[in-house]
Every structure is written in C-alpha cells, then in structure tokens.
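Good morning,

Attaching, inline, the backbone tokens for the sequence recovery test we're adding to the shared suite. The designed sequence is right after.
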C-alpha cells in the first residue's frame, strides 16, 4: 500500500510511520512527505530518513483549487493509495477528497468529538477531564469531523504537567497511527 504523508510542522508522527514501515516487508511504503511549509522540521526528518519530499504552498498558485490539483497530481503520479495527514494544518477540499474517498486519514490528539481543533491536548487538560487520548479518523471537508477509525485513551495523572501529558499523547500517537495503517492494509487484503 503506497502512502503519502502530509505534514506542516514538527513531523514526529511522520517519522514514527517512516520508521515503522522502513523495510517495506509489510507491503506498506511511505513513498513521500509533502509539506506546505518551507521551514517544516518534517522535511529535515524526511531527508535524514532518505524519503522523497515535495514542498509547495497555496501562495505558489493562483487559487486554492490549483494548489490542491497540484497535490492531487503528485499523489496520482506516485500511485498513492492512502493519504496520511500528520499535523497538516489545512482543511482539504474537493479535488483530493473526491479522488480519495475513504482513503485520507488524520490523527488528532483528543478523544473526538471532544476537543477538535488546534489545541486538543491543552483544552482537555484545562477542562480537567479524567481521560483523554488520540483519534484516527477519515478526513472529510470539516475540521476533525470524519468517521472515526480508532481511538486510544489514557488517564490524566493527578498533578501531571501539560508538558508531560503532551509527551504521553505523542508517544501514544506514534503507536496508534502505524497500527491503524496496518489495519487498513489488512482490510485491503480481506
Ligand atoms: C499531532 O499531535 C497530531 O495529532 C496533530 O498534530 C500533531 C502533529 O505532531 N494533528 P507532529 O508534527 O507529528 O510531531
């Protein structure tokens, strides 16, 4: 299964995926990393891991539509079967969503539908909930709103700092995201 990862920033999930599937023996390959941000650390990680990168931004195109069509074109040229969003900070629109029905996934650091948006970890922490976690879901035209594929939860520890919670959430993400891709690959074989 040929996968593309889209990331706008740090890229720790991208790295976890690239390392999980580095040998390709599970029939899963991270073919390239795309970033809409020229300075994204994810691009450096890809270079260090020997994974192909593409980088361009909506500002490089006359319209958002043209930007997404260019993204779609590289996915099609690379025969991508699954698009994996990992900290990609943009909403997707028709060109990609129509071309990849049920084949674009995202990871979010809360138990959706609770705490969608950019600050899911902090908002859960500040709300004082006992449990939070991570969600992997199919991507639709909304923000963190598509059909849920898998969730994993963890208990917020008494006295835990936000930084500690963030670290534990990211560790959980790095386990759950490869597991979900294996699950989707298994479904393809079924
Ligand atoms: C992750 O917490 C992910 O759930 C959210 O954005 C963050 C990206 O982190 N969508 P990284 O760039 O993979 O380190």
């Amino acid at each position: 299964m040929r996968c593309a990862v889209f990331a706008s920033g740090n890229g720790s999930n991208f790295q976890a995926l690239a390392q999980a599937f580095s040998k390709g023996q599970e029939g899963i390959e991270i073919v390239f990393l795309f970033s809409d941000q020229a300075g994204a650390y994810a691009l450096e990680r890809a270079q260090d891991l020997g994974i192909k990168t593409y980088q361009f931004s909506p500002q490089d195109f006359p319209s958002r539509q043209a930007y997404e069509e260019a993204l779609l074109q590289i996915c099609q040229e690379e025969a991508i079967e699954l698009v994996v969003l990992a900290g990609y900070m943009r909403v997707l629109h028709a060109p990609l969503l129509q071309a990849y029905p049920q084949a674009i996934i995202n990871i979010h650091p809360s138990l959706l539908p609770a705490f969608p948006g950019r600050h899911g970890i902090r908002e859960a922490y500040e709300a004082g909930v006992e449990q939070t976690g991570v969600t992997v879901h199919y991507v639709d035209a909304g923000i963190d709103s598509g059909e849920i594929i898998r969730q994993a939860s963890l208990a917020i520890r008494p006295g835990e700092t936000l930084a500690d919670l963030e670290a534990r959430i990211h560790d959980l993400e790095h386990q759950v995201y490869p597991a979900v891709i294996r699950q989707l690959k298994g479904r393809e074989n079924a």
